[in-house]
Amino acid sequence: MEEKYVWDSKALQDEVQQNIRDTIAHIYLKILKVNLTDDMQQNVMVKVEEMETAKGYTEKLSEWIKNFAEAGYVYKEDLQKYRSFCNLDYLRKRFRDGNKFICFHYRRKVRGEFRWVSVELVAAREYRDDNQVAYLYVRDIHDNYLRQLDLTVRRRMQNALSLVSLNLTGNKYDFGCGEYANLIMDTQECSVDDYLDSLSKYIYNKKKKNGEFRKKISRENLLRLFEKGEMFLTFVEAFMLEEDERGILKFTVIMEKDVFSGDVEAVIYTQDVTGEYLQNLFIPMLHHSKFRAVGVVDLRCRTIVLAKKGNQEDSKLMYSEVPYDEARQKICMEHVAPMDREAYMAKTTLENLKKNLEEDDGYGFLVYHEKDGEKTIKSYQCHYLSEEFELVIFTIEDVTSLSEKDALTGGENQQGFIKKVENLLQKREKTYAILCLDVKNFKAINGLFGIAEGNDLLRRLYQDLENSFLEPLITARVEADQYLCLFEWDKLDCEKLALWCEKEYIIKGRPFRVSKRCGIYRIQDAAADVRNMCDRARLAMSVAKRGRSPKPFVVFDDMMGKEYIDLFEMLAQFDNSLKSGEFCVYIQPVVNPVTGQISSAEALVRWNCMGKGIISPQRFIPLLEDSGDISQLDLYVVRKVEKFQREREEQGLPTVPISVNLSWIDFYDNALLEWLCSYVASRKDKKHTIRFEITETSYAAVAENRSLLFEQLRHHGVELLLDDFGSGYSSFSTLHNYDFDILKIDMGFVRRIEESDKTKSIIDSIVKMAHQMDVRTIAEGAETREQVEFLREKGCDYIQGYYFYKPMPMEDFASILDSCGV
Fold first, then answer.
1. Which of 19, 433, 710, 742 could form a disulfide with 721 if both were Cys (CB 3.0 to 4.6 A apart)?
2. 304, 324 contact by CB (below 8 A)
3. Predicted confidence (pLDDT) per residue in 172-199, tens digit
4. C-alpha–C-alpha distance, residues 560 and 637, integer Å
5. β partners of residue 362
6. Distance of alpha carbon 602 from alpha carbon 656, whole angstroms
7. CA-based angle 572:576:577, to the nearest 5?
8. Backbone torsions φ then ψ of 433, nearest 5 degrees
């Protein structure tokens, strides 16, 4: 067959190779051939526009990496991640572990602006473990990254009230869609400034001041933020949606540059967060008071946002917005005692609430609730949360204890018991004792037989105690399954009491052993406070419950008395100790196991109490959490750390991030939340030097109603640490539900590394899983070389423990930083 073409094979080969080079040059900004073993590099291909970045070029790979970062090409918020990834020891280890491809994304200058790039290392054909040769490719992924981000944003916008597209550079309103006319423009023939002016008219607050909003969302401010590399902006405002409808809206602004025109464009979308906002107003009332439920009633819309304390059966009522009349009807039929239902419905009409609130600042009434035959007295109180918005806050409080009778047993409650004991001790001269009784695992009994049978057992226990060999003079049920009784000391028979504490009861026709634990306080001084006597009996009972006694009962002794008094005195001294500086902040460094350098630290606290010496945190932290004073201490610590970091920055001294532990209670403490907001605002243009550690149980407790706060903190560059991972029952749920930056492996795992292969496998899996989620890891409590070597081998990012450093005063930590030049 005759050939139709004559091929010039050399010319064709040259053309194909040139096409390949052009294609590669189009895809990649730079290609290097690197030798990790010898710390050497060689340019293979550099775009002309990238020649500016080659000014600090040196054949030493580590020096070039350092020069590149110091020249300002890396975005400041990505510097730490950039340096960690480009650490040669880290890369060598990754390749030795069998990886042939390693990838990292960060922001760096490309053509004068910060853009997302991908750094990819691929093992070369001549690669060996003792001669680690690889190719390093750098490519611009900014536009693809933003498209992926856009998809994520669009998923989030499924519940958006409005979506508006703006051309900020051209001052042009492109398009808008939404449910409310006040959020969009009815014409595209308008400017960005026209739209923002229109939007600001409907910002709603008492003083009708919209200047701050207009300044924040001005076109000039948005362009200024974009030039600084900030592509996201979120904030919350009260907004008039329509003439008779308003809400709390979350505004989200996302900006990017059009690759063809070079114009900066923005998308603004809004979400209604009224429910979450109102919950955040009244959730603290649930945690810091005795309110059974708190609700916000919207008089205009006739709805109520209800937060209700309860068990899992009540969870469907918690934090829900429902029609007001539907809610009060449900409460009436399910909770209010039949005899009070008619009065309850009359008192809770919206018309009656308005009428009473117009006449007075507040309105309230008492009503009986009934559940499983037990009556309780509830106090309903309401007052205006916002008269302009016609929002009324509604509280329900259990005030049964203010009476002197227990509704379930018909006997005394704690108030009645104390009053009667005080009267009796004034008239008689015998030796008496108070017994505190608690039913062991009573919740299991309720679970096995039901609440009705459980309540019946509680009544029988009361009668049984009343008719026992102790011949009590006064008996009371003071809590769910806890009883008090006063008896003559001579009546105590230890053998009979031990048998009685393990007595069987017939429940639903079958015998069931009901174990009880008792604490006994022998009254020494009849004139002493009866409440303190009861507390001592409870303390003895708690010792019996913890299994520190072979018997089912414990008699209060002087040692317990000392412990009780110590706890009481500690709490009484707390405020003065805080003011006088008895609480000292200690710092424990966290080390990079590859380099051995200090990478960060954790702030801890010690109490050098006057007259008592050093008090262990294991003693005073639980005490302060129970009393609600822990937020004062946490605020004290975080202020000390902030001052330490700020002073070192101002003096040009080296710093590393320091993490501070936060309790779940802190997220409902106004003073601490105000400090957090102030701190974030003060670091707007600076890298954050403080991190916050939260345990997984605290995440579960607060994130339900503080998800917006966590999101905002992380958006502004504040790093969150998940503390004590693996110590709770819901570790993997925490990983799934909440976002954080660093995972701290509980020291309980670390200390068993040398004892258990299973523990080693668990730690290995945790580290790998964290890295797959782009989360760094810190192992706590490392004390031996074997533990450290294992953690280093498994790729754990950082290690904290006595093997490297013990906690130390801040001055000592400062000296170490100065000497190391971190």
1. 742
2. yes
3. 888 787 878 888 887 767 899 999 989 8
4. 32
5. 383
6. 10
7. 95
8. -145, 155
